């Protein structure tokens, strides 16, 4: 004998079975955010990436710990995306906009051999603005360390849909996660 609760559970199961082809672990809209890229060109998130999947992370150029390996992994991801002919944008957002000028970001990026047509490094906003973006849109805490030029920030890479919704986070410090991102993007774009 079916109860009302049983019927609701069956409906929920059917609805979730028709969902995304990847295992999502987030559901947040990216708030509107103004920045400039490494070339000093104006960028408006998420509007300028509308219609494209994109991967975002948070870094800063004076970082003494996680940012260099994260940026190395983003470079690895860019190579994998090109190999698979996946037209996915990459966005590295500075959490230290006071220090990280467009020129500073470009200099930091160069050893990682970025294709700036695909990968943007953003600055040109206040720390408070990027803190709100990090927390509200990406569920990632951000804090300036006392008596230091360092910041405590998340180490995730975030998959953002063409509609500007963050749907999945990945461990940005693990190289193997780059393959998972590519696999997920292939499933989403097939």
Report what the structure shows:
The chain has 190 residues and is of the alpha+beta class. The protein has a single domain (24-189), classed as Glutaredoxin, CATH 3.40.30. 34% of the residues lie in helices and 23% in strands. It has 5 helices and 10 strands; from the N terminus they run αββββαβαβαββββα. The strands form 3 sheets. Strands 1-10-9-4-5-6 form a 6-stranded mixed beta sheet, with helices on both faces. Helix 2 packs across helix 5. Residues 6-18 have low confidence and may be disordered.
Question: What is the topology?
Answer:
Elements: H1 4-17, E1 28-29, E2 33-36, E3 42-45, E4 54-59, H2 67-83, E5 89-94, H3 102-109, E6 119-122, H4 127-138, E7 142-144, E8 151-153, E9 156-160, E10 165-171, H5 176-189
Parallel strand pairs: 4-5, 5-6
Antiparallel strand pairs: 1-10, 2-3, 4-9, 7-8, 9-10
Helix pairs in contact: 2-5
User: Span from first to last CA?
Assistant: 41 Å
Number of helices: 5
Which class best fits the helix and strand makeup?
A: alpha+beta
What would you say the CATH architecture is?
3-Layer(aba) Sandwich
| The CATH class | Alpha Beta
General shape: globular
- Low-confidence stretches are 6-18
Helix fraction bin: 25-40%
CATH T-level fold name: Glutaredoxin
CATH superfamily descriptor: Glutaredoxin
- DSSP strand tally: 10
What Rg do the Cα atoms give? 18 Å
Could you describe the largest sheet, including whether it forms a barrel? 6 strands, mixed
**Strand order, biggest sheet?**
1-10-9-4-5-6
| Average of per-residue pLDDT values | 91
> How many structural domains are formed by the residues?
1
């Amino acid at each position: 004998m079916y109860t009302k609760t049983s019927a609701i559970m069956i409906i929920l199961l059917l609805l979730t079975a028709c969902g995304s082809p990847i295992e999502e672990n987030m559901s947040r809209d990216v708030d509107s955010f103004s920045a400039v890229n490494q070339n000093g060109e104006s960028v408006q998130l998420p509007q300028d990436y509308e219609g494209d999947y994109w991967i975002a992370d948070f870094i800063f150029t004076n970082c003494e710990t996680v940012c260099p390996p994260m940026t190395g992994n983003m470079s690895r991801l860019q190579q994998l995306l090109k190999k698979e002919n996946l037209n996915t944008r990459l966005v590295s957002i500075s959490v230290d906009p006071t220090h990280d000028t467009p020129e500073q970001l470009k200099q930091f990026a160069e050893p990682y051999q970025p294709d700036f047509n695909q990968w943007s490094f953003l600055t040109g906003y206040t720390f408070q603005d990027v803190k709100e973006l990090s927390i509200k849109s990406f569920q990632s805490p951000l804090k300036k360390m006392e008596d230091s030029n360092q910041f405590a920030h998340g180490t995730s890479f975030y998959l953002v849909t063409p509609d500007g919704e963050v749907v999945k986070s990945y461990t940005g410090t693990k190289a193997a996660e780059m393959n998972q991102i590519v696999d997920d993007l292939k499933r989403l774009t097939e």
